[in-house]
Amino acid sequence: MLRFIPSKAALWAALSAAAALLLAWLRLDARRDARRDAEIKDYEHAEDISKIACLLTALTLTACAPSRGPVTATERTLCRIWGESLPTRSRADTAQTQVEIAESYADFVAACPGAAGLVP
Description:
single chain; mainly alpha
């Protein structure tokens, strides 16, 4: 029966192996926790970056939006006079003249959107 009783050296070896396994497991667990904490911080920074990106996008879009107020009487009069002085088309117009007339009509419509009916 004494053959099955482990010696002190065998007990110390088994305890050392168990302690080494426990330390290895704790070390892996600590690494997992550190990685998880780093990922959480990265996600927090990603949320901040996305908020900043959304804010910049909104500012950019509002900066590009037309910010015209109501049309004044002076603007209305200038558009009417400009619209009445627009060139008219003719069958004898050259290709370059036709392009220039079309460009002047486009400029007028862009500057005076409410007076597009004045285009001949």
